[in-house]
Amino acid sequence: DKAGHRHFMAKEIAEQPAVLAEAIRHYLPADEDAVRLPGAGLDFSGVQRLTLVACGTAYYACLTAKYWFEKLARIPVEVDIASEFRYREPPLPAGTVALFVSQSGETADTLAALRYCRGKADRIVSVVNVPESSIARESDLALPIHAGVEIGVASTKAFTCQLAVLLILALKAAADRGEMTPEALSDHISALRGLPHLMNTALEADDEIRDAAQQLSSARDVLFLGRGLMFPLALEGALKLKEISYIHAEAYASGELKHGPIALIDSMMPVVVMAPKDALFDKTVSNMQEVMAREGKVMLISNPAGLAAAGDGVWLSIAMPDVQDAVAPILYAVPAQLLAYHTAVAKGTDVDQPRNLAKSVTVE
Ligand code: M6R
């Protein structure tokens, strides 16, 4: 049932405020500023290292989580693609917690990577959408994301719920390790609690994004740029676009632009820049100006202050509401998803069942 939407993907994008509120409610009890994990939980105080493993969109959720765990909880983090991890046979030093992220909980490579870690990692934790899945069952601790059934092949609500659970876990880690003051913890918790509401505001940019997508739909190649927490999101934006619109899209960390990809820039290559006005904003803007100086067409996704400071001369701009830095990637996932969705609709591709793809990749 598409609940009045044209595609399951549109329905699942629109459901995000509600499912995020649900995910947050499960981990952040309403009456206190603390994190509650199911079952025996997990104490991060003795954890030496985290290894995060996943595929596709779930892998980009892990890349985002690396920034959170390192910056907020000061835990060294390694992130890997499951199909690489499993055959590289990496050593896992004592004190390693292995964490697997998977919507379906049945992805063959992620499951094989989990089995490799059995007996080698201190704890095996998973962040899953399907609680009865193989990955959930074979973990010491399974953390459900409460996104509800996701039908569209392109993952949307599962991604933002994965991010929310991973951020909550990083906050728990920061608190367990004494790396965060109670005030900072409650600031982050309020930012998370405020997210579903902000996401509704982000969804209101739908018409604007549909118009932008109309223009994007004639491009052959698109480049996505972001720094810090916006870099994994740039990767996710590019994956979404290529999956459902079949437009070739790539993402780079903004700082990498001059190390090669700037050679691609001309008036035919739209560049999507995701940059809320945060501590790294000026650096991203200078990369954006390098693109514009070469006739590159920039689509800037930012908050009002960011658009006021750097929106002059850009090709298209999309406004997002102001948001606390740590939760920004969860909010900015919305325009990335809508952009891919409307571009695919403009091109007339099969949004929910893109060619050559399966919802769950249970073979290698
Ligand atoms: O079920 P999983 O989360 O393990 O799936 C991982 C990837 O196959 C999945 O995220 C894929 O990249 C999606 N089609 C992305 O939209």
TrEMBL record:
Q: Biological process GO terms, please? A: carbohydrate metabolic process; fructose 6-phosphate metabolic process; protein N-linked glycosylation; UDP-N-acetylglucosamine metabolic process
**Which GO terms label this protein's molecular function in UniProt?**
carbohydrate derivative binding; glutamine-fructose-6-phosphate transaminase (isomerizing) activity
Name the catalytic site residues: K359 (for fru-6p isomerization activity)
Gene Ontology cellular component list: cytosol
Q: Where is the SIS domain?
A: 40-179, 212-354
Q: What sort of enzyme, by top EC class, is this?
A: transferase
Cite the entry's keywords alphabetically.
Aminotransferase, Cytoplasm, Glutamine amidotransferase, Repeat, Transferase
EC numbers for this chain: 2.6.1.16
- Domain of life of the native organism: Bacteria
Report the subcellular localization.
Answer: Cytoplasm
Q: What main location does UniProt list?
A: cytoplasm
Show the catalytic activity. D-fructose 6-phosphate + L-glutamine = D-glucosamine 6-phosphate + L-glutamate
- State the oligomer form and interacting partners: Homodimer.
Q: What does this protein do?
A: Catalyzes the first step in hexosamine metabolism, converting fructose-6P into glucosamine-6P using glutamine as a nitrogen source.
Protein name (record): Glutamine--fructose-6-phosphate aminotransferase [isomerizing]
User: What part of the full protein is here?
Assistant: 244 to 607 of 607
